[in-house]
Amino acid sequence: MSLGYAEKLSYIEDVGNVGMVEYFDPSHVLREKIDQLAIMIKKSKHLVVFTGAGISTSCGIPDFRGPKGIWTLQREGKALPEASLPFHRAAPSMTHMALVELEKAGILKFVISQNVDGLHLRSGIPREKLAELHGNSFMETCPSCGEEYFRDFEVETIGLKETSRRCSVAKCGTRLKDTVLDWEDALPTKEMNPAEKHCKQADIVLCLGTSLQITPACNLPLKALRGGGKVVIVNLQKTPKDKKASLVIHGFVDKVIAGVMDQLNMQISPFVRIDLFQIILVQALSNDKRYVNWTLQVASAHGQKAALPFIKSVEISFLDREDYKAAILDKQPFRLKRRTAYNKAFEMVLKLNFSDGCGCSSLEIDVPVDFKVSTDCFDFDKDYIFQKLRDKAVLESRCGQNAVIERKTILTPRSDVTTYAIVTNVVQYSKACKAALDSLSNGDFKKRKASVTGTGSSRKRSKGSSKCKSRSDNIRGHT
Length: 479
Description:
Low-confidence stretches: 1-19, 69-74, 454-479
Helix content: 10-25%
Largest sheet: 6 strands, parallel
Oligomer: single chain
Mean pLDDT: 86
Structural class: alpha+beta
CATH class of the largest domain: Alpha Beta
Number of strands: 20
CATH topology of the largest domain: Rossmann fold
């Protein structure tokens, strides 16, 4: 059984009660600090962001030291918070997606994260610009060749232990390991070395949603000071590094970042999640060659034995064939075995019922079957297909768009494998962004926008509207 988020993070050192009380800057002070941070980011040549659990609380993932944090509730003898959705379905927060926009614009050079929730990678931060100091619950790595595998399910182990899967690189096949550290594990040099390098180069290290108490990670931002860089901290609790910071902001991270993005005239794009699955049809001729014994399986694209967490059940029906009995597969592996006359072609309809946390409830896939005709093999340009699916999902403001990205035939045993990509979530941030800006504005936040962007006098009210525009609000609360 998959470990829960609290167990996944039990290795982190608890260093006492420091930072459990939350503080909030007065609204006018918060607005001034957001202005100041926006100016600093605009002028920055090498911005590095250092993140903690506080940027993921609006994703339904609890933090540790807040009033409802995991460690706080443990000390008080209370039950741990229940996630509002399955961990593997958590969507990036407004802050996660804002960082993606800053990276695309060339402003953000590197992200350092203490989180194991995988949301930075899922949001779109390039792997080469990300250091995950404590690992990633959804990542496996090959200890032999170094290949990494980002999964749609939680890896079942922690502590850099072997998992049940092997490396798929040709001539490798080494047993994979999880990447989440345990108590005794040192921070991996693969993550620490680039993190230290970028902190030393940084003119700003922006710390978001972290108490800066977990060593040695918490000392990374201070390396910027030696080269003349500055540290900025955005957190609801006080931290041991506050005195070293040039700017400390006590406020919700999403609210602060929404204000900064508005001041920079930058839009926060929607998040579109695309998941993969395979339809596998295995066939074998009977001895008299009159019948085909066949097996249909709906499987993970990460391997036939891997979990397929976003599909709850599969309903199978047959078009125009009353003699073929329909079936409901409600347990994994989703597998159906049947026997059919060799010369009979038919068409199946697969209704995929999705698990909680997906943006659509189900999807129907037509699967034509003709055992006498060979299946054509092809491998499309996946990046092109993914982008078309994203564009269509954003335009239609819904999920369910799907496409075949690969089809191949395996000779022994004879198997036709078709891989599908499907949009399972579309998250728009417009209303949450607007609400955050409205709570800041009170009629005068826009007045100072011109002084940040350089488009006019700070006394002149901007006539432009917020750049954080989309269609709907699927964001879950605030950070």
